[in-house]
């Protein structure tokens, strides 16, 4: 039996996928339920399409994530190793190289920066 994506309905009536190796070992799963079989199948197909070229992100304390948003702009966010977003770009950039330059500027400027508390005079 080759490695297979299995799409199935769980006890909560949600659809999920799992990747099962030839020896029966589950090597990956959806981690969440989907409302329909089709949605679970499409998610499995995305995993199949994206995984071969995906980068490996090995995070110690935090990592910058660079991504293209729904409007086609490039953004960054800083994620703690627990997945929490601790900072973001606050604006979009026209290119991947533009947002990467912005990340480098943040990295250079944050060292030695002071923390000020502004009075709330409203």
Q: Any overview of this molecule?
A:
The chain has 122 residues and is an alpha+beta fold. A hairpin with a 5-residue loop joins strand 2 and strand 3. The chain has helices spanning 37-50, 96-110; strands spanning 4-9, 15-20, 26-29, 62-68, 74-80, 85-88. The protein has 2 domains: 4-53, Double Stranded RNA Binding Domain (2-Layer Sandwich), CATH 3.30.160.160; 62-110, YegP-like (Double Stranded RNA Binding Domain, 2-Layer Sandwich).
CATH fold call of the largest domain: Double Stranded RNA Binding Domain
- In spatial order, strands of the major sheet run 1-2-3
Radius of gyration: 20 Å
Order of helices and strands: EEEHEEEH
Structural class: alpha+beta
Tell me the β content. 25-35%
What is the class of the largest domain in the CATH system? Alpha Beta
Principal-axes geometry comes out as elongated
Mean pLDDT: 93
Distance between the termini: 68 Å
The CATH homologous superfamily of the largest domain is named YegP-like
Low-confidence spans: none
Strand count, sense and closure of the main sheet? Answer: 3 strands, antiparallel
How many β-strands, per DSSP?
6
Count structural domains.
2
- Percent of residues in helices comes to 10-25%
How many helical elements? 2
Architecture (CATH level 2) name of the largest domain? 2-Layer Sandwich
